[in-house]
Specification:
The protein is mainly α and about 160 residues long. The strands form two sheets. A three-stranded mixed beta sheet has the order 3-4-5, covered by helices on one side. A two-stranded antiparallel ribbon has the order 1-2. The protein is elongated. Helix content is about 35%, strand content about 10%. The mean pLDDT is about 90.
């Protein structure tokens, strides 16, 4: 009696997903994607804004340290980059190498590049807020530095980048 009788064999459960189960999984993945993708894209914009804040903090700290070490004198606009990235003496004269005379600084390795806006990627300094390709605006009279962007360029909160 080797003949097989299908009526007497127990029911075997199928090991596959039904179409309804697959549709439910796809819908759930779609909902998660609809929530996550906008949050991730806002995160990239927020990261650029945070980078601008960090770069401005570094620049402002370097200017403050220069001022403290040079008897309250701010770096001149014409020689700003040299005075920030090389060694200086007590009078503020810049020199590429350190010596007993030129022992102050450097305050920055290099000027950071602007991370947002129409002048993104620029690291040059401008004396006034203009449409030039400079990344930063430096006021040698007050020591203030800001992003060289028009007031119409704002972050995700609506705050102008040049007011950071």
């Amino acid at each position: 009696m080797l003949a097989s009788n299908t009526a007497t064999q127990p029911y075997r459960a199928r090991r596959a997903f039904s179409l309804i189960e697959l549709v439910i999984v796809v819908v759930i993945i779609g909902i998660i994607g609809a929530i996550a993708i906008p949050r991730m894209s806002r995160g990239a914009a927020g990261a650029a804004d945070s980078s601008l804040v960090a770069d401005l903090a570094v620049l402002r700290s370097a200017i403050d340290l220069y001022k403290a070490e040079h008897g309250g004198t701010l770096p001149a606009f014409a020689t700003f980059e040299d005075k920030m990235t090389t060694y200086t003496d007590d009078a503020g004269t810049a020199n590429a190498s350190k010596s007993t005379t030129y022992y102050l600084g450097p305050y920055l390795r290099e000027l950071p590049t602007l991370k947002v806006g129409t002048n993104k990627g620029q690291s040059a300094i401008s004396a006034t807020q203009t449409g030039t390709t400079a990344g930063w605006v430096y006021d040698a009279a007050t020591g203030e530095i800001s992003a060289n962007l028009p007031g119409t360029e704002v972050d995700v909160r609506g705050v102008a980048y040049n007011s950071y």
